[in-house]
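Exercise: predict the fold of this chain.
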Amino acid sequence: LLIITVGLTVFFIGSQKSKQPRAAEPLQPYLNAAFNYALVYPQGWLVLEQLCDLGKPDPVQVETDIGIRLHCTIFALKKNADDFFRVAVWSNPRRLDVRDWLVLNNQQPAGTLTVAEKQAEKTRLRMREYESTTVWLAEEDGNNMFEISFLHPMGAHPLEQTFERILSRFTFSTRQIKDEDILRELKGLPADHPLRRRYEDMFPELKKK
């Protein structure tokens, strides 16, 4: 059985530690139509899609006995940052619930919470001088399992509150988005902003003056 935290440790190899802890930044929306989810992340950060292992693209799918990693995106201030947020999507052909998924991957749940109006499970991992908090939840139809992580140097971190905000505003709907705050932030962008123009067809409200 391949533990599904593969890739977390190797991403840190060669990472650059921040000289000063960063306070929580303003947030901006990220929308993924392919896997139908939306969240917010710190303004000005890089969005590194399909970048999870040693900075390489991920055409080689990471596979466990119960699923395949289909998608991975890292949100970081810069490449090789020593703190970042990550979203990965795993296939869930057996439609396991979250606890069964974790048990079969030798992971111990560390708490239950609600994300996107669904029950989610939290896990924690320590590796060398780093630690991660990961929240797991199944897509509404159960076909995919979502992994939302915050990885950082050991100890308290100023972006922990930002991670809580990311979780509180995560949603599985981008076509009929329920999170009005995210849509408001899109409307607040300049009319010629690439992110706004990219989603005008998906959200007709953005075309309204």
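Check your answer against the key: The radius of gyration is 17 Å.
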